[in-house]
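Researcher: Predict the fold of Diadenylate cyclase.
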Amino acid sequence: MILLFQISFITISWIDILDILLVSIIIYKLYKLLRGSVAVKVFIGILFIYAFYLIVKASGMELLRSILGQFMGVGVLAAFILFQQEIRKFLQMIGKSTSQNNSLIKDWFSKGKPGGKAELNLAPIIDSVKIFSQTNTGALIVFSKTSELRFYAESGDILDAELSKRLLIAIFQKNSPLHDGAVIVSAGRIKAARCIIPVSENDKIPAHMGLRHRAAIGLTEVTDAVVLIVSEETGGVSIAYNGEIYYNLNKSDIRSKLRSFIYDDDEQIAHEVKNIRYESLH
Ligand SMILES: Nc1ncnc2c1ncn2[C@@H]1O[C@H](COP(=O)(O)OP(=O)(O)OP(=O)(O)O)[C@@H](O)[C@H]1O
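Model: Structure tokens for Diadenylate cyclase follow.
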């Protein structure tokens, strides 16, 4: 092992630095994920007990070490049961960044080749959203990017139908059996309707945003999907992406936001477009 430096009797190597760095990143990511939820208190409690266990172990207190050791063994199992949802979110977050990197590599290789990315026809979406907004019809439309979102599509009814204004209007009509939940659009087709998507637990989401908006934000926290929301209450149109929500959008904002987020095009410029109400939830 390559020795880096020594502080009294402790020798520190590059591996130790890397080890500390990786553990700090994992703890920070976990804390960020749990922040605002009840689980954060349990997480901090476990961290304290573990730190205490390490001190007891290093100081050679055998009896206390063996008691705490037993507790830590059961504690790991208990943590898996207690944090089921958070662990799933954490793994989904890792999966999200991995699939984004894969798509970057794919895009890089497909540069210049025609048909690298399927072109989505935005006209039926913009036209139907205009009608939903004018008639105060609630709608939740998910656009998949690198993942087909099969898991979420299967929570609803699979349609695999051509994307059209008429079909979108028929689905979200208040007396339609498919109007509840989200529609998933993937590869330019309506994959499924009545889908259940994960609800965000972010406590920075304004109180006036209900479950429809929370679910839209929630899905974009764990996938790279873009979600369009029409409020049943106000007719207002919002777009959620990457855990953030952009609201009170007009027709041209909707078009430009959808374009920039779905095709990762001019994302930064779109961020700075004036008059767009943007809620930073991070
Ligand atoms: N987890 C979910 N997945 C998919 N759809 C959901 C989910 N939770 C709620 N919804 C949809 O949102 C509707 C309820 O919306 P709610 O009124 O609570 O939200 P909201 O954000 O206040 O929207 P609105 O402004 O339209 O009232 C449900 O009827 C359902 O269609």
